[in-house]
């Protein structure tokens, strides 16, 4: 899609009220005047920066002038718009059309992240269940001597787990050692 065609598509959006203010339009005109190759001559730049004319008229005339000059001039306008008003540049209707994918195209990214759609809570829940089962299996195994080791670890961990949880675990370990 040519830049002139895109500009024709974006004219109404750009000239609608409160999209571009005086300062941004002046910066764009100055950049088009000073860029290499020079897009606007000094006389044209003065005409489009004339404070006697309304902003809407000056902007409409500038856009029509650029469309008559050709694709390179329109491309430089888009570059100046991106530099001086990036948020507006990103909101242009022609940019949104360029960003939307072709409906006939196959999107492989959807299949790539299929396992990742459950979120962090699901991960934490699964991890907690797995850790709990591993701890239970390790503690219930009669061949290992867990009680002494676990008591030492839990005794030094008031920072990691709360005091109430630590006390409950200690009572549970003492109860297991009596049986």
From TrEMBL:
A Pfam family of this chain: CARD
Assigned keywords, A-Z: Disulfide bond, Endoplasmic reticulum, Membrane, Mitochondrion, Transmembrane, Transmembrane helix
Domain CARD: from-to ranges: 38-96
InterPro entries: CARD, CARD19, CARD_BinCARD, DEATH-like_dom_sf
Location of the protein in the cell: Endoplasmic reticulum membrane; Mitochondrion membrane
Membrane topology: Single-pass membrane protein
GO biological process, one term: regulation of apoptotic process
Keyword Zinc applies: no
Superkingdom field: Eukaryota
GO CC term (a single one): endoplasmic reticulum membrane
Magnesium recorded as keyword: no
Membrane-spanning intervals of the chain: 120-138
Subunit structure: Associates with BCL10 by CARD-CARD interaction.
Protein name as annotated: Caspase recruitment domain-containing protein 19
Organism ancestry: Eukaryota, Metazoa, Chordata, Craniata, Vertebrata
Gene label: Card19
């Amino acid at each position: 899609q040519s830049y002139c065609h895109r500009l024709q598509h974006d004219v109404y959006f750009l000239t609608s009220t409160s999209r571009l203010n005086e300062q941004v339009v002046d910066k764009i005109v100055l950049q088009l005047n000073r860029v290499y190759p020079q897009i606007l001559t000094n006389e044209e730049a003065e005409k489009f920066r004339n404070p006697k004319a309304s902003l809407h008229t000056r902007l409409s005339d500038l856009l029509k002038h650029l469309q008559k000059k050709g694709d390179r001039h329109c491309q430089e306008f888009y570059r100046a718009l991106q530099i001086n008003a990036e948020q507006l540049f990103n909101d242009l209707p022609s940019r949104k059309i360029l960003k939307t994918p072709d409906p006939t195209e196959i999107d492989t990214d959807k299949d790539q992240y299929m396992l990742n759609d459950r979120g962090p809570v699901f991960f934490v829940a699964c991890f907690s269940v797995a850790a709990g089962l591993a701890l239970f299996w390790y503690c219930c195994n009669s061949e290992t001597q867990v009680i002494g080791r676990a008591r030492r670890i839990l005794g030094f961990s008031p920072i990691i787990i709360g005091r109430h949880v630590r006390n409950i675990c200690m009572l549970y370990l003492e109860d297991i050692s009596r049986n």
